[in-house]
Structures are given as C-alpha cells and as structure tokens.
Amino acid sequence: MILWSLITQPASAFREFVAPRYRPELHYMRGPGPAYARRAVMVGSRNCVVDCHLWPLCRCHISCVIDDRTKPAPSGVFAGMTLLAVVAAALVTAALVGVWVFLMTSDAMAHDALPTAAQPRRWSYPFSCCSGYDCREVADNAIGERPEGYVIKGTGELITYADSRIKDSADGVFHWCSMAGANDGHTICLFCTAAWILISQRIPPIQLRAIMDPKDLSRAAADVAPGPRETLNVWRNGKAMQISAAVGRNSDDAKTASAEGNGGKSPRPRLLLPAGISSRTLAAVDFDPQQRIVSMVTRGFFSGRKPPTDADGRIPPGQYLEQSFPVLAAGPTPRVRTEDWSFTLKHGPRPLKKWTWAEFNALPLSRMTRDIHCVTAWTKFDTSWQGVLVDDILVDAGIAPPTAFTLAHSFDGYATNVPAKDLTGGKAMVALLYEGKPITPDHGGPARLLVPHLYFWKSAKWLNGLQFTEHDEPGFWELRGYHIYGDPWREQRYTDDP
Amino acid sequence: MSEAAATQSPWQMAKIIRIEKRTPRVTSFFFKLSRPFAHQAGQHVDVRLTAPDGYQARRSYSIASAPESGGTVELAIERLEDGEVSPFFHEVAAVGDEIELRGPLGGHFVWSDSDGGPIILVGGGSGVVPLMAMVRHRTARKSSVPVALVFSARIWEEVIFRDELIKLDDRRDGFDLVLTLTREPAQRPDDYSRRIDAQMMMQSMSRLPEPPKLAIVCGWNAFVSAAAQALIDADVPAGLIRTERYGV
C-alpha cells in the first residue's frame, strides 16, 4: 500500500502540475527568490500542496494535510528522475511559466478573475498573496493573538509577528489568504491591523517619536537604560485600555540572548509588555484623550464672516455658510450610464427587489428643500432635490424595515451606514434631480442618497443599493476615523466625538 | 499600514514656533504641539479660531511635515482672498501665538513606506502639501520605494517647497520630480509647460520601474477631476486612485 502511494502520489501531483484541473493561472505565484509554482490538489481524499521549483533543479514537493498537520507526503521529489524526464518537464513547465508570466503581468485579467465580493474595498491584495482569489475578509474572532504571534483558529497555525506573511491591512480588519481559498488551507498571507506607536514622554531618546515598525521599537528600546514601569494608554480598534510597560531586562531575556549566541554580552534592554500584547498591535500615547480644553480666544481674530441674521439657528456648530457647492469624494468620479444603472434593496446578502432606471423613475417623485452640512465645515442653505422617498421604495417593495440598520452602497464600492429610522418617515430620499436638473456625475448622479439631517458623507453618491443589516456596520469613512452616526448639531465629526 | 483605524484626537493648544514664507501666496507655520501625536503622511488637522464674541471658524489643513518630525507639525497655508482663516494666518498670526488644533485626522488619503510602491503623486498648487509629507516620510525612512511626483503650479515662483524638492530629485534615489507650469515656460529639462494630461501621466509613470500600485491626487476640485481622468486615460485602474479635493 505504501509502495503504491509512493508511485501514485508523485505521479498524480506531477500530472496536476503539467495538466492542471484547477484554475492554474490563479495559483501560480512568484515567490521570494527563484520562480516556483504552487498549487493545492486533492490526492485521494487528502488536501495536498504541490510546490515546484524551476531553478536550479526542476523538482516538485508534495505535502499533504494529515491530522491537521502538514507532513511531507511519501517522497515526491522528482530530482531523481531520469535526465530526459527532467528536461522534458522543464520544457513543459517553461512553456507554462511563459503563460504564467503573461498572466502575472496582465493586471486587468487578474482583476477580472476576482469575484468582486472577495475584494476589499479601495485596496487590492498583492499578487504575492496569490492575488485576490485566495483572500477574503475574516471575522476578528477567526484570528487569535498570542504573545508570540497570530493564531489562525481554523487551522491552528501560529504566524509569528516577524513572519513575512503578515501584511498590514488597509481597512482595519483582518484579511486572510489561504491555499486554494480553503478554510483549512495553509496561510499565504494574513493582513492585520498594524499600529503605530508613540512612546512615553518619560522614556528619553525615543520620546515623542512615531514608531512605525515594531522592529524599530525594539531597536529604540535597546538603547535605553532600564527604567521604572509606567502606565500607557493604548488604543486598538477604537477600544481603550491601560497597560503597564517599562524598559527593562528580565531573566527570559538572558535566556533568549544566550540562545541567540550573545552569551557573553549582557541582555539588551527592551520594552517589556504584558503577555498577550505585542508591539505590533499596540498604539500607545501617554495622554488622556478625554481631557478636552475650553477654547481660548484667538489673539487678533474677530468674527469677520458672521452668518446673515436669517441664518440664526440654521448653522450647526463649527460650520460656515457656503454659497457654492463643493465636491468631495475619496476617488475618481465614476461615470454611470442610466442604462447600466440599477438599484437593489437587500436584507443582509438576500436581494429583496431590484429596479432599473426606468422602473425606479416610475416610482412617486417627491421634493425636498433642505440645508446640507458637510463635515469639512461648509453648510449650504435651501438645496432643492427631487427623488424617491425611502418610504416609497419600501412601499413598492412591500416591506417594512426588517432591521434597524442599513448600509448604503455605491457603484464605486463606497458604503456608509445609516440607521433605518433616519431614512424613513420622510427624512431621506434617493435623489434623482438637483435644482430641477439631473444630478451631475461629480455630485453623485445619476442617483444619490439624500439624508440632509446628517453630515453629508452619509448621503452616498452614485448609489446602487440599500442593504438592511442586523448590526450597525461602519462604512467607508466610518472605518477611517469619522463618526458612526454624524449628527451636525451634536458636532459628531470624528470617531471620538460624543 | 495604509489606512488608519480611528484614534483619539482631542483639541489641544499648539504654539507657533516658526513662520517661513514658501511662495508669494503660501506660508508655512510650524506648530509645537502641547500634546504630541503620531500622524501618517497625508493626514490633516483641524484648526479652530475663536473670536472675543465666541464666534468660531474651523478649517482643515494638511500636514506638510513627515511623521518622523517629532512633536512639531508644519502647515503650509495658502492665502485665499475671500477666506476667513487663511488671511488671519497671513496677516495676524505671529511666532508665540497659541492656536487651537485637533488631529491627526483622516484615514484614507495616507501613504506610508510600508505600503510599498511604486506610487505616483499628483498635486496641484497647495495640493502638494500632503504629498510633501509623503515625500519627506520616504526620505526620513530612507525608503527605496519609487515615487514620481507630478506637481502643477502656475508659475516657477509658486512652486511650493521648490528647492527642497529639486534637491531630493537630484539625489536620484528613486524619487522623481516632474514639474509642470501652466502659465510659464518650463524651467528644467524634461519638465512641462501645460495642464496635466494623459500623455504627461504616461511619460511620468514611465520613469517608474513598473506601473504604480497607487496614485494619490490632491488639489482644487477641478484639478483633481482632470488629473484623475488623465490617470484613468493613461490606463491606471480607478480603484488605485486616491483623491483629496478642496474648494469648488
């Protein structure tokens, strides 16, 4: 039996490499150093990985998951093949590599291959992580943290903080790339929320310096004499906690140092953090964020641009009156043709109803004339819009709001969260006309959300859908420092505003 | 890290410690923070002025200094004739004044050298300020990420940070400066004298070893629209373009 598998497994793997059954262009990847190709295959009922180096020797390894652990399968090394076979294999693989290189360099093609749902918003996975095909966002609780590294709960893998597979997440949430995109696949890349660190003012040469890389932290701490412990305020993912940290040495350090071959020297000082907290996941500043200062009068500044008297009570705190209509967006202006436009109402992932441009325009039109308030501090009075009230959209779909929260989605991937109660009762509409004319693309046309009583980033441009969600899920700007609700009258601009 | 999760940013007093005229219309103000923060290149601060009668005016200004510049923050403020806050800075503010400030703010329009590249930065007028923070961050980190900065100004005298940028360009360490003047002939070989277009974008990107991973555009709204369109016409996928706009 063992003998049989000795023959069949490498043979199967080799066939898979030469004539793959599995979308090969998505799984060839450029590794560090010499080119190699890697693919997940099923051998019998086992999940295996074929790993082929093309240089200096054309040889393949196959490793399979046995009892949740990777062990080399019965030898799959082809180096011992006859010279002829090696040359033949090299020729075939060289041809494949040609195709692969073409695919690697063809950006558009690679993007076309990605299922859009798997792509992160506003950034893309690097090719070295097998492009986007093997990658997806994962829940916070799918990844554990230990002092020595991240733990992938699905596979039990431990990825140390120094592992090059750890990358910085661009949107503050975990993304995980695993072989073949399988939940039990080996980790290709793990995208984590990194943090920068501002060290205590009381630890000299590194005081007030932004530490952008955990390695720099160790390096900086290594030059500091051991000092007393002190409390740092630490924020991570919007949550605050206090930890005690100090620069010091301990016996563990001495052991580590001798293990590393520094036996003769005394251990280098380092920042001692409590168990469970790594420098990588730490963002520390040593002042109290809750402390707010009362505004002092600015020397030489006088209220030059007082709002007109009829504006009394209409300009929220910190806003100024603007006559023109500034344009703000996170990226280029998408051009959405009305024949390509559609609007989808969803409950979670489930579509409830979808309208084309013509169908949507057949819904009852309402007019709203409202003051609008942008978080960049301009307020514009009496903007006039026509569109379909969210109430009327729900009536046409024959539903009442199934949940208390929504996410408004846009053609360019933008999303923003609005509670359902802020959309209904005549408070919000999907606007189609501004001042009687179709909304121009730079102002969000063909259709934008209008929620005038909240800061204007909530009025999503280039709207293509509204999704009811079970929880209040932060959208694009809400994940990037802006307030979860955004009431201009309570000046809820940024995340930490009350 | 390319996009920061929210952090705490209370109002604080910051003292003007230095004032440096950059161009006829742009002056840099260096603030000593009373509560230092670590920002990311591209982030901004909000500045709040309070009149004796309680009236307050608040504006956002991009940070020009690198995150590595310690507890000091440089804001390069352009004087807007019909403005309310910028004329105060240009005419009244003096070294020693304390100004109320809050930051760092914004988590999308940012770049750090660990995000890698190559990247193309496109700035118009004072839109170069947040891009300058990125260029300075790259220099401070001794990063080798290839960066091309296409900077459009009306005239040579209005090229903000001109000497510093040219000095960095001369180092040939992977940073490439492309200047384009819209109202004057070009002053350096390989620079341009016209508005930004797709051809200029293509030629500028050809100075990078490979197509950019990210394009970062900042300036007046009309400039950003034109520059973003030029990038798209030069085959940069829209999803790779980050913009920051101001004005109308």
Break the fold down into its secondary structure elements and pairings.
The complex is a heterodimer of chains A (498) and B (248).
Chain A (H helix, E strand, L loop, with lengths): L1 H17 L9 E2 L6 E8 L2 E8 L5 E8 L2 E4 L10 H23 L1 H7 L21 E3 L5 E4 L2 E4 L4 E4 L5 E3 L6 E4 L8 E6 L4 E2 L11 E2 L2 H9 L7 E7 L2 E10 L2 H9 L10 E3 L11 E2 L34 E2 L20 E6 L2 E7 H5 L4 E8 L4 E12 H8 L7 E6 L4 E5 L9 E6 L2 E2 L9 E3 L12 E7 L29
Chain B lengths: L10 E11 L4 E8 L10 E7 L5 E7 L9 E7 L7 H6 L6 E8 L13 E6 L3 H13 L6 E7 L8 H9 L4 E7 L16 H8 L8 E7 H13 L7 E6 L2
Parallel strand pairs in B: 7-8, 7-10, 8-9, 10-11
Antiparallel strand pairs in B: 1-2, 1-6, 2-5, 3-4, 3-6
Helix pairs in contact in B: 4-5
Description:
- The complex is a heterodimer of chains A (498) and B (248).
- By secondary structure, chain A is an alpha+beta fold.
- Chain A has 4 domains: 2-105, no CATH class; 116-192, no CATH class; 197-250 and 267-285, no CATH class; 309-490, Oxidoreductase, molybdopterin-binding domain (Sulfite Oxidase, Chain A, domain 2), CATH 3.90.420.10.
- Chain A has helices at residues 2-18, 83-105, 107-113, 214-222, 251-259, 357-361, 390-397; strands at residues 28-29, 36-43, 46-53, 59-66, 69-72, 135-137, 143-146, 149-152, 157-160, 166-168, 175-178, 187-192, 197-198, 210-211, 230-236, 239-248, 270-272, 284-285, 320-321, 342-347, 350-356, 366-373, 378-389, 405-410, 415-419, 429-434, 437-438, 448-450, 463-469.
- In chain A, strand 4 (59-66) and strand 5 (69-72) form a beta hairpin.
- The longest helix of chain A has 23 residues, at 83-105.
- Chain A is globular and about 85 Å long.
- Residues 20-36, 53-59, 66-83, 99-117, 194-214, 233-241, 250-266 and 279-294 of chain A have low confidence and may be disordered.
- Chain B is built from 5 helices and 11 strands.
- In chain B, helix 4 crosses helix 5.
